[in-house]
Amino acid sequence: MKNKRWLSLLVVSAAFIYLVLPLAATFMYSIAKEWSHTVLPVSYTLDWYKELFTDSRFLAAVGRTLTVSAIALIASVVTMSVTVFVVYMYLPKLERFLQAITMIPFAVPGVVAAVGLIKVYSSGPIVLSGTIWILVGAYYVLIIPYMYQGIRNSLRTIDARRLMEAAEILGASKMKAFLQVVAPNIMGGIIISALLSFSILIGEFVMANFLVGGSYETIQIYLMRQLNQNGHLSSAIVIAYFTIVLMISWLMLKLGTRFNKKEENKENAA
Amino acid sequence: MSYVQIDQAFKQFGKSVVLQQVSLNVEKGELVTLLGPSGCGKSTLLRCIAGLESLDSGTISVNGKDISQLPPQRRNVGMVFQSYALFPNMTVFDNIAFGLKMQKLAREQITAKVNQAIELVHLSGKESSYPHQLSGGQQQRVALARALVTEPDILLLDEPLSALDAKIRKSLQSDLRSIQRDLKMTMIFVTHDQEEAMTISDRIFVMNNGEIAQQGKPEHIYASPKNEFVARFIGSYNVLTGRDLIRLTGQSMKPGTYAIRPEVMELHPSGEAHTFTHDRGLWLEGVISSMIVRGNVRRYEVQSQDVTLTIDELNVPHKVAFDEGMLINVRIPEAACTLLA
Amino acid sequence: MHRKVTLFAIIALLPFALLVVGFLMLPLIAMIHDSFLSADGRTYTLEQYITALTSPYYSKGIVNSLKISLYSSVIGMIIAFVVSYSITRMPKKIQNFMITFSNLTSNFSGVPLAFAFIILLGNSGLFTLLFKEWGWNMTDTFSLYSWSGLVLVYVYFQVPLAILLLYPAYSGIHKQWRESAALLGASNLQFWLRIGIPVLLPSIVGTFSILFANAMGAYATAYALVGSNYNLLTIRIGSLIAGDVATQPQLGSALAVILGLMMLGAMWINERLMRRFRRDLQ
Description:
The complex is a heterotrimer of chains A (270), B (341) and C (282).
Chain A: H1 5-30, E1 32-34, E2 43-44, H2 47-54, H3 56-90, H4 95-107, H5 110-121, H6 132-142, H7 144-158, H8 160-169, H9 174-201, H10 206-212, H11 219-227, H12 231-269
Antiparallel strand pairs in A: 1-2
Chain B: E1 4-13, E2 16-26, E3 31-35, H1 42-50, E4 57-62, E5 65-66, E6 77-80, H2 92-102, H3 107-120, H4 136-148, E7 154-158, H5 166-183, E8 186-191, H6 194-200, E9 203-208, E10 211-216, H7 218-223, H8 228-233, E11 238-241, H9 242-249, E12 257-260, E13 266-269, E14 282-294, E15 297-304, E16 307-314, E17 327-332, E18 338-340
Parallel strand pairs in B: 3-8, 3-9, 6-7, 7-8
Antiparallel strand pairs in B: 1-2, 1-4, 4-5, 9-10, 11-12, 12-18, 13-17, 14-15, 14-17, 15-16
Helix pairs in contact in B: 2-3, 2-4, 3-4
Chain C: H1 2-35, H2 47-54, H3 56-88, H4 92-105, H5 110-121, H6 126-133, H7 147-171, H8 175-183, H9 188-217, H10 220-226, H11 233-242, H12 249-277
Helix pairs in contact in C: 1-12, 2-3, 2-12, 3-7, 3-9, 3-11, 4-7, 5-10, 7-9, 9-12, 11-12
Domain ABC transporter (chain B): 4-234
EC number (chain B): 7.6.2.9
Protein name (chain B): Carnitine transport ATP-binding protein OpuCA
């Protein structure tokens, strides 16, 4: 079959340029000393990065984002792996119901979620508004779909039911069987979904802005405020953010291939 | 002049040569098999005939017409794939009708032909099923009907039965053969399964390393393999050098490599008196190292010095099997030692 | 024994259930409840919905949101359709690279994206100045801070997402379908019309509804670009619950419910269309 491969190459190259342009421009801005009335920067510098990483306000914002994300992630890993596992093993009838619940956050945009959360927690018996806990809760919900998919798929791939049966026949209690046999085997999948969730959380702006914006400055809120004051600093933040996202995707890819390789070996051995 | 003529077909992918000047002829109405291990070039040759790959040099002609430069659409060949390649969005009927619609036939004509084809492959009643609702064997029947209904000059089958389980494969083999005979369709069948090739073909081309190692009728290839590759690939021939045979039997042999079929050798208990004089043949001593029963045959592995022989014996109830570790004598009829090229 | 298992299951599921109820279900219910209250929060009324749908200000916001979602999804879809097909025709290495890269840029949205476009096309953006040097004053016909600018930025964040969703669908089209079709006499175009596109259709529809929902719910990108000035549904909700002027949570809730319903609608239509186009799937 004769094909016009050069045409495809052209399309792919154009797409690459289209996608890379905003990123490249941001990068250039972050290393430009002076760039306001010329097409390309006049001179270059790394000072913006230096300034950024010595800016205590930025470092504090990083700390806050990490704190909120870490609490939400740990809560998610612990409660969701237990929940998904128990439903998968012992309550298969609830499976569809659980799946439906975990899909809801997909259909609820950040603004909508914020409306409800503010309503419930700004007055009444429990007041969380303006505290970090309302954001932790919101983030916990936000990453439910991703965590669910990851844990569910891992359980399926390792055929957790058979593993549990095998461990129990060999004399392990349910708890031991879960902790020593199932948990280590689904760890890879859980870590991958946790990394994906983490990269979503560090880029989250809307809910942080509405729920705790005034009192708790996360990276994205700091970025929003810097936008109008110092563009160079802002672009340095964006580039730093993307470097982290890139590192996370790389890590996920590595973990993913390691995970898949294990699977392949299993298949080859069979 | 033959119906299908392939002349000096040559093809390489990058640096590796997959077809080295292959020439072969197929007569009209014949079913021939390209048989060989994976990577021998058989599928590539088939795809070149279909026009899905192009030859670097050489020609392919069908019915006296050179088709090597035509696109697949204009070659008028049909093809059946191992993976069936049914269109998942179409029913059985629409799948089979697809080629006829491309030929812009009238609706009534299409319906008539498709129904006929469906009957031919025994799928009546499944017209409006979708491929994913059918079993593997049924899907392959649809693929066969889809390829046959346009009445191609040749039908190419690329390991069509390899994905199916043994029973269904057997029944499809015989169906395919009878359809081929009824329609007098010229077919080129690719497989790596020598038993399948033996069962189904008029003629077999054994391929190895992009070359035809041997061609001929199934019984001919089985009875007299031309070289070591064919001997090993077709039936599990024992391949021994003349020197080994001399060493084991003490008899003089012409130098060269010999192929001996497992079922021609006889096993005798070592104590049993036998007269070397009138019992012509080569005799050697060995120890039974293992025995497995394969239905009507017992297959022994016999260790004789440093050589392992495979010997088949009919599994009949009144004949007691030899135990592992037993010392035995083996008789090889002299005529059964085929000298290989 | 059975009772023990049930008890164990309840304890195991409790933390998750509490968190989901507390931070997902209760807020949604409270929001829906709130949307049926009058502005003083005392009496039940449909007033908020009537305002939302009839006031030119808010209904314009809804229409604008629908429009920009439709435009950006259609354009993003077309681009991604061509691009992901082209990607499948590249060597494996380039394919992997482009998918990883799309994955990376799919994180590029919201505040950082708005900022990047300001650098490129803002009043003293790279291209704005470049075009000026070439003698074309872009700002006469195009402004990043206008409707068309917003569409441009929205399209950008739709494209990588759409590529990520469509690419696997293309790899679902087996090479041998194309070969079979060719041998049966079909041209390339006939193959795509009769087999390729019908097979892809569920993925196309599914991707489209995800893109549409994605654009409907987007807030940060527009907010960072033009603040609260642009009349979009999400921006309106935002300023009603945390605006500079007096907040109107009940009206905000009603608009949020409308937005949520439209998201559900997009998914429902997706589901229906899928069944209709692909009878072979059911």
